[in-house]
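Just scan this pair:

***
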Amino acid sequence: MTIAVADHRRDAELPGLVAEWRALWERVPTATPFQHPDWLVTWWEVFAPGDLFVVTARWGDRLVGMAPLYREVGPLGKRLLPLGISVSDYLDLLVDPACAEAGSSALVSHILRSDLSWHEWELPELLSGAAGLSLARPSGMQDETVAQSICPVLSLPASVEALAKVIPPRKRRKLRMARNRARRRGPVAIERIGSEDTDDAFAALLEFHRARWHHHGETAVLANARAREFHRMAMRRLNEAGIARIYRLSITGATAGIYYGFLRGRHAYAYLGGFNPDFAFESPGTLLIGHAIEQAVRDGAERFHFLRGDEPYKFEWGAAEQWTQRRVFRRVDAHVHA
């Protein structure tokens, strides 16, 4: 098997890769929404914090491997980092299972031989089974792998009725109480937001987060202007692609909360949410997550990912600990390449 590898260092090259990048993503069953080009290309368009270095591997005319990277030059030296770092809960190389070993090896060999100087290559937020964890340590490299982030996951049953067996009784009672309170206040509806209404849903989500910042005096994921622009664009693109799951909770006709997550195959992901403080008594967050979990079961998901953070509410739903890992390759002769 002969695999041809190339790298792409100009922004203008990215749009031409998107179609086959999407096709490769579809062929990799373990790929998460955070590896989708609509997420990563959007990230680069908004942030572009260094020198683009996207490495592709092809078997004939077929794209079989992607390493979407960039080089950061800063106080820590010259580092290769993945596109999407910081905003992405899971990251990895993207390699076709039909030629996983050969594709991964070809990508790594090209990265090592490249004339782009670097001394450290970081592979953060790797799930168990990630391609980045199976890479052989290259010659002349130090290799370090450590636990990185806790990402609680709820294992889902085959039916909504069977959720009673996996969600603890205390949380089920809280969910029933929230539903009763909401119904007593007025008509309740939870709807999935279509692509044409994504910008309105994002505006509501941003408004709720601003209200929270003002009330609590804290900063959060949407506090930065670039982060807001990224999430607005990514939410719309992933919704158009059918990957995003955006739900709006209405009580008495008013928007009480927004849930922003994803669904890919047998995995659902709860990424971001916000609620109207005027409806705090009705627990909009509990109502939306309860709905998202039930809908994930209906959609055939087997795992509901609460993503990074050990907030107590995640474990109240019955989620179990799962950790990502961070792997770093460092050149032994770093001073030569620094």
